[in-house]
């Protein structure tokens, strides 16, 4: 039997029982729609989490610290060198990290305790430096005012609660106002010290109180970087180049005062920005080869990826239950077709149709129901997703929250759902096709 004749005969048989075949196809559509709905929800939630984390500036960032800063004094497993002899995070280390391929930016992470003077009143606050690239962080999208005009501008962005401490009645009026930041500056010394037992040739440093005039240019009500970095808990933010120029005393200076680099300026941590999230692992390996300790959000998201993998599995299982029920309807429909068309099957066999031709005919009918049900189910699932996204965004708008897409239907999901519907339909057609092919043509022709 030719393919064209097979498809034409299958189409004619489906049209003869429109209601029954239509209901079976509708069952397949609902099953596919439920499958698409479940998996689209999982994909949408995963995309939402990835978008929020990506816009937080964490996915393309590697945090670098020195092994000499291990608080508990233990060495990393597998390291043979003494942490006391580990490399320091100084300007030389910063240049090495900047030379690694795919590294776009290396900035120190500076955070310190200072005192802000406003209207002749002191306000203690944690101050942190921000890189110019942090402008794209989602925490500054809805901020009042603006980001720093340049990397060297003596400007400040303050948290909303700190702005309220400056002016409780109307915190926004502090934008454009000048403040004075008082801090502890580290000044190097060129002195020598000696004793009867040892001589120290290393330059030390002194701590001097200094002040810097700043202009408030913006107010943010969110913690940058999703609160996952130490500087996120700061209340006053200044450009990182300004923070470096202040030469503020850091905790690493105190830890190194007894070492052999007490006269050298070091940083508690360096933040390495990578060209893309896909390059983070390679950059991380290169930094480790240089003898530094690293951390990236990829380390923290391994558990998150496992969570979404398990979630997608369970959603797929529950979504497939409706399709499994629909496969029973296909079996019932085709078995009834075998009983109703026994005489027709007998005539086909009498004029030369083989068992294989009969099987192909019923497979074609099952596959046709799978194709139609799969396509209509995908459309139904997509429509459901659009309605849910629309309703969700109305709810978010009423609560003054930004619009989000929590329902996502990627192409692989659409194609996979249609293919899965066809495969399930063909499997459901195995028994009816086998039963039809085994009919005795003589007995079939006697059937009334």
Task: Write out key terms for the chains shown.
2 domains; 18% strand; 4-stranded antiparallel sheet; alpha+beta; single chain; 448 residues; elongated; 13 helices; 13 strands; 49% helix
Low-confidence stretches: 71-81, 191-202
How many DSSP helices? 13
Mass-distribution shape: elongated
Instruction: List SSEs in N-to-C order.
Output: HHEHEEEEEHEEEEEHHEHEHHHHHH
Instruction: Give the rounded overall mean pLDDT.
Output: 77
Number of strands: 13
Structural class: alpha+beta
- Our count of domains comes out at 2
Q: Kindly report the spatial arrangement of strands forming the biggest sheet.
A: 3-4-11-6-10-7
Q: What amount of the residues lies in strands?
A: 15-25%
Question: Mind sketching the topology for me?
Answer:
Elements: H1 3-16, H2 18-55, E1 61-65, H3 91-98, E2 103-108, E3 111-118, E4 121-130, E5 144-145, E6 155-159, H4 160-166, E7 178-188, E8 193-194, E9 199-200, E10 205-220, E11 236-239, H5 240-246, H6 251-255, E12 270-274, H7 280-289, E13 293-296, H8 297-340, H9 342-350, H10 355-398, H11 411-428, H12 430-437, H13 441-446
Parallel strand pairs: 4-11, 6-10
Antiparallel strand pairs: 1-12, 1-13, 2-12, 3-4, 3-7, 5-10, 6-11, 7-10, 8-9
Helix pairs in contact: 1-10, 2-8, 2-10, 2-11, 8-11, 8-12, 10-11, 10-12
Task: Report on the architecture of this protein.
With 448 residues, this protein is α+β, with helices and mostly antiparallel strands. The chain has two domains: 3-54 and 304-446, no CATH class; 60-297, no CATH class. Helices cover 49% and strands 18% of the residues. It contains 13 helices and 13 strands. Strand 3 (111-118) and strand 4 form a beta hairpin. Helix 1 packs across helix 10 (355-398). The longest helix has 44 residues, at 297-340. The relative contact order is 0.19. Mean pLDDT is 77; it is low at 71-81 and 191-202.
């Amino acid at each position: 039997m030719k393919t064209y004749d097979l498809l034409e005969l299958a189409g004619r048989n489906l049209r003869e029982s429109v209601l029954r075949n239509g209901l079976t196809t509708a069952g397949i559509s609902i099953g596919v729609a439920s499958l698409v709905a479940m998996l689209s929800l999982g994909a949408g939630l995963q995309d939402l989490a990835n978008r929020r984390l990506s816009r937080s500036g964490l996915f393309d960032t590697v945090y670098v610290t020195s092994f000499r800063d291990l608080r508990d004094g233990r060495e990393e497993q597998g390291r043979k060198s003494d942490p006391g002899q580990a490399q320091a995070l100084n300007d030389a280390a910063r240049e090495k990290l900047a030379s690694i391929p795919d590294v776009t930016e290396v900035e120190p992470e500076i955070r310190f305790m200072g005192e802000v003077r406003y209207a002749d009143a002191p306000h203690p606050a944690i101050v942190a430096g921000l890189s110019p690239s942090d402008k794209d962080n989602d925490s500054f999208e809805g901020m009042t005012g603006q980001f720093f005009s340049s990397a060297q501008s003596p400007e400040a962005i303050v948290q909303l609660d700190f702005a309220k401490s400056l002016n409780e009645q109307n915190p926004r009026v502090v934008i454009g106002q000048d403040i004075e930041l008082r801090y502890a500056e580290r000044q190097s010394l060129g002195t020598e010290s000696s004793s009867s037992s040892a001589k120290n040739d290393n330059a030390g440093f002194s701590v001097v109180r200094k002040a810097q005039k700043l202009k408030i240019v913006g107010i943010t009500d969110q913690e940058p970087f999703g609160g996952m970095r130490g500087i996120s808990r700061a209340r006053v933010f200044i450009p990182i180049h300004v923070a470096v120029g202040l030469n503020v005393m850091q905790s690493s200076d105190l830890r190194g005062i007894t070492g052999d680099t007490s006269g050298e300026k070091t940083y508690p941590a360096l933040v390495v920005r990578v060209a893309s999230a896909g390059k983070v692992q390679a950059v991380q390996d290169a930094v480790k080869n240089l003898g530094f300790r690293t951390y990236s959000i990829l380390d923290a998201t391994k558990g998150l990826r496992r969570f979404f993998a398990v979630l997608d599995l369970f959603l797929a299982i529950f979504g497939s239950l409706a399709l499994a029920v629909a496969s029973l309807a296909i079996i019932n429909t085709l078995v009834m077709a075998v009983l109703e068309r026994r005489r027709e099957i007998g005539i086909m066999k009498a004029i030369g149709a083989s068992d294989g031709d009969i099987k192909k005919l019923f497979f074609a009918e099952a596959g046709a129901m799978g194709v139609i049900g799969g396509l209509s189910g995908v459309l139904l699932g997509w429509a459901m997703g659009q309605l849910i996204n629309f309703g969700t965004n109305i709810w978010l708008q009423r609560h003054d929250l930004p619009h989000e897409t929590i329902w996502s239907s990627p192409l692989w999901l659409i194609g996979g759902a249609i293919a899965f519907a066809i495969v399930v339909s063909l499997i459901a057609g195995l028994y009816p096709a086998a039963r039809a092919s085994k009919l005795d043509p003589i007995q079939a022709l006697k059937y009334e």
